Prior knowledge:
By secondary structure, the protein is α+β, with helices and mostly antiparallel strands. The protein has six helices and eight strands; from the N terminus they run E-H-E-E-H-E-H-E-H-E-E-H-E-H. The longest helix is centred in the middle third of the chain and has 16 residues, at 54-69. The N and C termini lie close together (10 Å).
Amino acid sequence: MSGRQVVLLRGINLGPNRRVAMPALRELLTGAGFEQVRTYVQSGNVVLSSELAPDELERECERLISAEFGFDVDVVARTRDQLAEVVARNPLGDVAENPKRYQVSFLADELDPDRVEALAAAAVEPERFVALGRELYAWHPAGVARSRLWAKLAGAGLGVKATARNWTTVTTLLAMADEV
């Protein structure tokens, strides 16, 4: 069996545009030769088996989605082991009481230190922010609606391809990657 990987699509199914039905996405990826393709919720979370390296998998999924659905979608992928490391690090686990308000942003590349510093400065008490490699962990106890930090994390201003998931989704995807 090839390696389990998690594929995260950015910005689909958030409104009337850029709609991707999960059954159609599963069919597309299975038809492209990926194995054990499963999705979780409607926001573009896929667990599959592939022999491709994560960066190759990202490019192939972006190409397939563009060709099939007619629009471009940023894709970030992690191996099962990389996702397990994200969960094991859990730098805000001691303060993040509500997993739906605890976000992990998955980046294609690490941010430069100046950008990380600017993000950290946007966190307003009692928010917390930690950058570890290609992941940004953010705790938004009051929610994301009025968070300056979240606005910076969710926008296009990071300078790298990125997408965020709440802690519930992150841990569920790891559990799915562990299932055969």
